Structure formats: C-alpha cells, structure tokens
Amino acid sequence: MPTRGLRTRIAPLAVATALVGGLVATTTAAAPDARAAGGGYYLYFKKNTSDPINSKLYLMKSVAGAKDEVVAKYRAGSGNGSQNECATNKGWLPGTNTKNGKYKIEFHRTNFDGIINGHVIKLSDKKCAKGTKRTELFVHSEMKPNGKQGTIESERWDGTRDYYSNGCVKLKPSDIKDLFAKAGRYGWPKTLYVVK
C-alpha cells in the first residue's frame, strides 16, 4: 500500500515533467517529431504598403490546433520602393495572399558566390498578377561570399538604404545570420508566404 501511494504521487509529477520537458524541447531545440506534429516551420513576409523597405520577415512555427507562433521577426525590404510586383528587378516580391504568395524554398547557403553573396535563401520563380515571370528571387543581405563585410557597395551594409533591392527580400547581415542560426536549430522552412 505505501508503494501504491508513492506511485500515485510520482505519476502526476512524471507527466508534468514530461510535458514541461516537451515544451522546452519545442521552444529551444524542436525535436523532429514536434515539427512533424505541429506542421514545421515557414517564413512569412508581411509587405508594408506605406514603406516597402520597412516590411517584416518572420520565422514561424506551425502549431497543430493552435495559432502559429512567431519564432523570430526581422525588418526586411523588397524592391526599390515600387509596389508594382510585375516590374522585373524593381518591384517588390509578387504575391499578396496564401494562394499567389506561396514560394517554395529551393535551397539555402552560407557561402553563395554570384550577383549576391554570402547567406542566401533561394525562392522559386513566380508569375505576378499580370503574368510576368519573376526569377532569381532570394532572401539575402550585402556581404562577401564568406559572410564578412567587403569594401565594394554590394558587399557592404551601410544602413537603411541597403534595404532596397532588385525585387528580392533583403535583411541586414546580422539578421540573416540570426535567421540561419535559428532555422538551423529549429528546422529549415520549406515555404515562404507573402501577404500585405
């Protein structure tokens, strides 16, 4: 009888510990089974119609049966200030709802060497509302291929004006590095959604 009484007191404690342990794992290191049960992680780009270079990019966690959680939030720009999503190399990222604003994340790299460099997330091509196909769309910053700051303008972050881009989503270097660290820890998103 004393053994049963001890078991009765310990069992609720074990369940509470398991629940708290599961919550900690989900919020700090998200075990693979937690991501699968909750639907995983995704990026969410919220356009700012009054100031396109002061938009927001969120790393989100999908939670089954509950409101999705913000894991991280960053200031982001898209385009050269134009809200014409069909203007190639000028307008902001096409899409304004979950149907036409869904992008597949094709890859992510920390050492990309091209027109843009360093930490990049490659997005799928997208047709704008009028049918123009937008290509070479990335989430990126301004840095050298090795992730350090360079001496030429396209490899050096100078301030607010650097949020302008040729239609990609642009973050400051410290923010994209933080995004990569968090996505690496919790689980890499496979999708980016764009909304107004």
UniProtKB/TrEMBL annotation:
Superkingdom as given in the UniProt entry: Bacteria
Residues of the L,D-TPase catalytic domain: 67-182
Keyword Nucleotide-binding: no
Signal peptide: 1-30
Keyword terms, alphabetized: Cell shape, Cell wall biogenesis/degradation, Peptidoglycan synthesis, Signal, Transferase
InterPro entries for this protein: LD_TPept_cat_dom, Transpep_catalytic_dom
Pathway noted in the entry: Cell wall biogenesis; peptidoglycan biosynthesis
Protein name (database record): L,D-transpeptidase family protein
Organism of provenance: Streptomyces atrovirens
